[in-house]
Amino acid sequence: MTDQSPPLGPIGEPIMGENGKLRWRPIRKANDPAGYDPEHKHHIDDYDLPPVESTVTWKTKPGEPVIEVEDLGIEFLRGRKRNLSLREIVFTGKSAHKRDTFWALRNLNFRVGRGEAVGLVGGNGGGKSTLLKLIAGTLLPDEGRAKVHEGVAPLIELTGGFVGELSARENIYLTAGLHGMSKEQVEERWDDIVDFAGPQVRAGLDVPYRHFSSGMQVRLGFAVITCLDEPIILVDEVLAVGDAAFREKCYNRMESLLDQGRTLFLVSHSGPDLLRFCTRGLYLNGGHLVGDGPMDEIMDRYLSELMGDNYQLPTDEEVTDRRLKRTDDQIKRRLKREAERTAIQNEADRRRAVG
Ligand SMILES: Nc1ncnc2c1ncn2[C@@H]1O[C@H](COP(=O)(O)OP(=O)(O)OP(=O)(O)O)[C@@H](O)[C@H]1O
């Protein structure tokens, strides 16, 4: 919100905004990190946060959906039942193998806007990974459609679509090239990719990718996928194999991508991770979309259905307090990123000036 917004209540007093969100009176502009008061409670919308430059070229206009899922369904083969006898085949005209199929996803309908961060929750086998693969286009639906209006950078399998026989170096060029990046663009971002992936990956750049440990695979996969200029990022549970420090680095990068207005789809069984980024939750159960709403409400519903009486739903007051705490943390992290970006920019300007 800018200073032209309708007047707010006294400092620290929440008022209900027109959009139904609680808002707090800002005590300073967000682009003035020095004035930040960590004791004060804020709503992120109260800040005139500077837009973050992005190299993405958008095909959609602001406000248009980037993903439209309509009556989407996919059927899988569960296995084969007993083979039919020759007599049955001849007299019934059926195939020798009886097909035993099931709908892994069915009747899914939803739209996702630019810049939304969507978390997918649901029990094992609920269809989360399958949905990401349908959005990425690596699986085709049997019913309906998933219309994706922007490019997608998927990290949905540990191998990230990389070729095991090729070296890590070759895989970087290959993946970036498939997403439309020229050799020069890859070279420009080379250090960013390899530094992010870490020293173990740098040391193994010429080793066949299949010899990488699962942690190294995910480091390289994440570094490459998030360096692409694709507006939609899909991340499946894969980050779980990285160590804690690397995961934190990945989360920071995901937040930077969201600052640029990119769209994120995240599958995770970790409530805190989902709540850190995602504003919207989709709940898949038995292949059906059974919930679509604010991430915290979807998470509470999923956990209470999963754990029954062992999960205590928060009171309204607790929900509000937790939302405020999360918003406050998001603002602090955003300001830190702004300060880091400014420092990097200043250093680059200084070097340019020195020649
Ligand atoms: N290629 C496939 N062929 C047959 N069945 C499949 C295939 N891929 C997934 N399935 C099945 O589809 C269902 C949904 O699987 P999916 O991996 O999407 O679930 P998930 O919600 O991601 O589960 P988890 O939380 O355990 O990772 C499961 O029953 C799974 O066994």
From TrEMBL:
<dbReference type="InterPro" id="IPR003439">
    <property type="entry name" value="ABC_transporter-like_ATP-bd"/>
</dbReference>
<dbReference type="InterPro" id="IPR003593">
    <property type="entry name" value="AAA+_ATPase"/>
</dbReference>
<dbReference type="InterPro" id="IPR027417">
    <property type="entry name" value="P-loop_NTPase"/>
</dbReference>
<protein>
    <submittedName>
        <fullName>ABC-2 type transport system ATP-binding protein</fullName>
    </submittedName>
</protein>
<dbReference type="Pfam" id="PF00005">
    <property type="entry name" value="ABC_tran"/>
</dbReference>
<dbReference type="GO" id="GO:0140359">
    <property type="term" value="F:ABC-type transporter activity"/>
</dbReference>
<dbReference type="InterPro" id="IPR050683">
    <property type="entry name" value="Bact_Polysacc_Export_ATP-bd"/>
</dbReference>
<keyword id="KW-0547">Nucleotide-binding</keyword>
<dbReference type="GO" id="GO:0016020">
    <property type="term" value="C:membrane"/>
</dbReference>
<feature type="domain" description="ABC transporter">
    <location>
        <begin position="84"/>
        <end position="311"/>
    </location>
</feature>
<keyword id="KW-0067">ATP-binding</keyword>
<keyword id="KW-0813">Transport</keyword>
<comment type="similarity">
    <text>Belongs to the ABC transporter superfamily.</text>
</comment>
<dbReference type="GO" id="GO:0005524">
    <property type="term" value="F:ATP binding"/>
</dbReference>
<dbReference type="InterPro" id="IPR017871">
    <property type="entry name" value="ABC_transporter-like_CS"/>
</dbReference>
<dbReference type="GO" id="GO:0016887">
    <property type="term" value="F:ATP hydrolysis activity"/>
</dbReference>
<dbReference type="InterPro" id="IPR015860">
    <property type="entry name" value="ABC_transpr_TagH-like"/>
</dbReference>
